[in-house]
């Protein structure tokens, strides 16, 4: 007679730990039975486990509360960091480095190493990558009959190429990474799903958002502001080839002064070429500060992610905290 799985579990639940089990062998097959029941130790009267019974049942191991508390403490916000979750925007031009090739491996490795150093502190990092080093849609629109929408879609594909390169670089040094694209490319990346992206971040993975927002006529700066708001990141860190925002073009005016802080309104009214107006307005409406800094200076990415003073801060002040910064 075979005993069904529910019956075996029901019968087993009535047995105390001190009961020495001795089932008739004819009632069940011993091989399949080991897969049906949790193993419980058989105890003798003096409390020691008995090894004479061929059917010894051991208590399943239960994780201790101390290990759970340790994992919770490890994921808590580091005291030295201003931000808990950040979105790093890397322009395509910055990835080109010395402009001798589309992507400079030294630049991508430098990004990966500095991101790795902050993720070990428990800071959650997401990236939005541009594609201007390979193809800029706005520059090619109108060439050989190429309309703006088609040109922008080609530019979105360029961002996917950069994202896959960055992912490979980061994973080569042990950083778990996921690429999510705004339109489906299931063979090479995940589709963008907000809740899945947040879950990846909570598990300590770096998420790279590619293909912009999936629509033409929008820049990757807008994608950075939008994704930052969606995943509840606390700041947009815009990595560029300049030290920050200047009051004049430093290429044209050697006396141009680097600005320490700016308000959203100053960026809009002075038409400063920091981000496009759609992106800056989106940051203003959602009270998202923006840090503009130089990607090419070693240590700047780590400083920016930690919230240290670097570059130009827009929409907040340096002496405020990420929870208390004032919309200006």
Q: What characteristics describe this protein?
A:
alpha/beta, 328 residues, 2 domains, nine-stranded mixed sheet, Carbamate kinase, disordered C terminus
Can you offer a commentary on this structure?
This protein has helices at residues 5-13, 30-36, 65-74, 92-96, 105-119, 137-140, 148-172, 194-202, 220-230, 264-269, 277-285, 300-306; strands spanning 85-90, 124-129, 177-181, 190-191, 206-210, 236-240, 261-262, 290-294, 312-314. The chain has twelve helices and nine strands. Helix 5 packs across helix 7, helix 5 packs parallel to helix 12 and helix 9 packs parallel to helix 11. The protein is α/β, with parallel strands linked by helices and 328 residues long. It starts with a helix and ends in a 14-residue tail after the last strand. The chain has two domains: 1-63, no CATH class; 81-314, Carbamate kinase (3-Layer(aba) Sandwich).
Rg (CA only) = 28 Å
Low-pLDDT parts are 5-79, 321-328
Sheet with the most strands, sense and barrel status = 9 strands, mixed
- The CATH topology assignment of the largest domain is Carbamate kinase
How many helices in DSSP terms? 12
Strand order of the largest sheet: 4-3-5-2-1-6-8-9-7
**CATH-scheme architecture of the largest domain:** 3-Layer(aba) Sandwich
Pfam family, one: AA_kinase
Keywords: ATP-binding, Kinase, Nucleotide-binding, Pyrimidine biosynthesis, Transferase
Enzyme class: transferase
InterPro entries: AceGlu_kinase-like_sf, Asp/Glu/Uridylate_kinase, Uridylate_kinase_bac
């Amino acid at each position: 007679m075979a005993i069904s799985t529910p019956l075996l579990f029901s019968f087993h639940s009535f047995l105390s730990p001190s009961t020495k089990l001795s089932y008739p062998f004819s009632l069940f097959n011993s091989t399949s039975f080991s897969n049906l029941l949790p193993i419980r130790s058989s105890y003798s009267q003096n409390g020691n486990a008995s090894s004479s019974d061929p059917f010894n049942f051991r208590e399943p191991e239960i994780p201790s509360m101390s290990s759970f508390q340790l994992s919770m403490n490890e994921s808590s916000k580091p005291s030295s960091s201003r931000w808990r979750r950040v979105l790093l925007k890397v322009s395509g031009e910055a990835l080109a480095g010395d402009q001798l090739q589309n992507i400079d491996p030294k630049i991508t490795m430098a990004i990966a190493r500095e991101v790795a150093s902050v993720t070990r502190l428990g800071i959650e990092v997401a990236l939005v990558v541009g594609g201007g080093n390979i193809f800029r849609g706005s520059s090619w629109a109108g060439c050989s009959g190429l309309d703006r929408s088609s040109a922008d879609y080609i530019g979105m594909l360029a961002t996917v190429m950069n994202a896959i390169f960055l992912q490979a670089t980061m994973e080569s040094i042990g950083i778990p990474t996921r690429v999510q694209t705004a339109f489906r490319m299931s063979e090479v990346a995940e589709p963008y799903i907000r809740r899945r992206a947040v879950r990846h971040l909570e598990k300590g993975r770096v998420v790279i958002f590619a293909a912009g927002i999936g629509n033409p006529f929008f820049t990757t700066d807008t994608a950075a502001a939008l994704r930052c708001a969606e995943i509840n990141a606390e700041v947009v860190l815009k990595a560029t080839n300049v030290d920050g925002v200047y009051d004049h073009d430093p290429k044209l005016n050697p006396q141009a002064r680097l600005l320490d802080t700016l308000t959203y309104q100053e960026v809009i009214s002075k038409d400063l070429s920091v981000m496009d107006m759609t992106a800056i307005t989106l940051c203003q409406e959602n009270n998202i500060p923006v840090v503009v800094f130089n990607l090419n200076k070693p240590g700047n990415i780590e400083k920016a992610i930690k919230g240290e003073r670097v570059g130009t801060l827009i929409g907040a002040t340096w002496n405020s905290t990420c929870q208390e910064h004032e919309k200006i």
